[in-house]
């Protein structure tokens, strides 16, 4: 997990890009959302966590936060019992005009989650993947390509 200082820098980047909504997948304990809140992010969070167990952590955190919703799916490039494509639920999750950060906690899941955004991929303002303590922040909107943003958290 990111240190408070690195999370605070990320929140400043979210402010700079006017992000209103964080879609996050891959942190069933709720640590990413809690870290964002501690660092000052006040926008909406939607967490995608398909399984029980650790998901109780994200549910507990979200239960105390009216701007945080948990959906019982993983994000992917196909629909199945536990996986949903983002484009199939985009209009239920994202309000018109919201600027979106897609955060994926595990590198192997990033291409599938981005592919699952389908026609809404260009509406993702930023895409972030976290691998250990490494952070990559990218602008999206270049077809199927990610372009590094100018600043790193």
Describe this protein's structure:
There is one protein chain. The chain has 153 residues and is of the alpha/beta class. It has one domain: Rossmann fold. It is 27% helix and 29% strand. It has five helices and nine strands. Strands 3-2-1-6-7-8-9 form a seven-stranded mixed sheet. It has a two-stranded parallel ribbon with strand order 4-5. Helix 3 links the parallel strand 2 and strand 3. The longest helix has 13 residues.
What are the main properties of this structure?
153 residues; alpha/beta; Rossmann fold; 7-stranded mixed beta sheet
* Unreliable sequence segments: 141-153
Task: Please give the CATH architecture.
Answer: 3-Layer(aba) Sandwich
Any idea how many domains? 1
The fraction of residues in strands falls at 25-35%
What proportion of the residues is helical, as a percent range?
Answer: 25-40%
Secondary-structure-derived class: alpha/beta
How many strands?
A: 9
CATH topology: Rossmann fold
The average pLDDT value, as a whole number, equals 82
Tally the helices: 5
Write down the overall geometry. Answer: globular
**Biggest beta sheet summary:** 7 strands, mixed
